[in-house]
Amino acid sequence: MEFIRNAWYVAGWSSEIDQELRRFTILDENIVIYRKADGDVVALEDRCPHRLLPLSLGKRIGDNIQCGYHGLTFDCSGKCVRVPGQNNLPASAYVDAFKTVERHNIVWIWMGDQDKADPADIFDLAEFSDPAWEAHQGDALHLKSNYLNVAENLVDPAHVSFVHPTTLGNSASENVPVHVSTEGKAIVAWRWIRDSEPIGFFKKFGDFSGNVDRWHYYYLHLPCTAVIDFGSAPTEDAIAEDDRNKGVRIFALHFMTPVTGGYTIDRWMHLRNTALGDDEAAENMDAMFRIAFDEDKAILEAVQKEEERPAKRRPIRIAIDKGPMVYRKRINEMLELERTHDVASDPSPAFVYHD
């Protein structure tokens, strides 16, 4: 499978990475990741260029890695700094090094052209640093599913009524139209369900005594980061769409890391404007999220199995598929840009461009 490489992906939560040599597989490539003595994160190709033993099976020599087969040693830039038994160091004795950035207790990695890695492009939200909000990391959900299907599921409010009837949705939203905007960098799908019974999640955490107005806003940032902004407010408050902070509001964040063509890790967390400092509430929210995301897992893994079987006919698309269809189109456009090398950035004076 072809992956977009010139993008920031989540390598792991900060808590997953320590001074031990650990193998991570990202975009079908094995990476050894560890922390230097000063705490900075190193990511190197996990394969010695000599006999191809994974470097993660070697050992630390200070901040360097010594291969466990014949002792070739590599520094944090991937350069070979020692070949036992000889003084010359072949230029071909190196491993690829990948830039990493640690932010909000998340470690990001750039898998493509290292000269194009700009930390300013890393996904961020103002609420991470807002004292009126609390961030809480959840789990890493392992899915036997193509990351494209996982991402499409996270820009699809319509499935919530049917897949998550006891946690994140109920039947009141089944026929409520979904709005879609594809004009910005993120693909956005949303809908409001007015004057309805609270969903299971907000029955537990919203303390609502009557009907609510509730919303789901799905933001999909390419290639595969999603934010689901959902919440509720008492119907009698009649809050406007731009006043969602007046209600109980949650951001569920999904950082999808493609492992292989049929395997994705979805690291999920939430930001909330309620129950600040309440660890028990956070754990209870996690428990409900786990129920909902296991429901997604069952659906997505079943779809993956069917996609791998011979197709009898082309799948159909319906009105709710606008967001996913635009997502696939943009992914294909990004892949096409990476298939070619643009050498026309400084056009020849032999050509005159009029656009």
TrEMBL record:
SUPFAM superfamilies: Bet v1-like, ISP domain. PANTHER family: 3-KETOSTEROID-9-ALPHA-MONOOXYGENASE, OXYGENASE COMPONENT, IRON-SULFUR DOMAIN CONTAINING PROTEIN. Gene3D superfamilies: Naphthalene 1,2-dioxygenase Alpha Subunit, Chain A, domain 1 (3.90.380.10), Rieske [2Fe-2S] iron-sulphur domain (2.102.10.10). Keywords: 2Fe-2S, Dioxygenase, Iron, Iron-sulfur, Metal-binding, Oxidoreductase. GO terms for molecular function: dioxygenase activity. InterPro entries: Cholesterol_7-desaturase, Rieske_2Fe-2S, Rieske_2Fe-2S_sf, VanA_C_cat. This is Aromatic ring-hydroxylating dioxygenase subunit alpha. The keyword Oxidoreductase applies. CDD domains: RHO_alpha_C_DMO-like (cd08878). It comes from the Bacteria. It holds the Pfam family VanA_C. It comes from Roseibium polysiphoniae. Residues 8-109 form the Rieske domain.
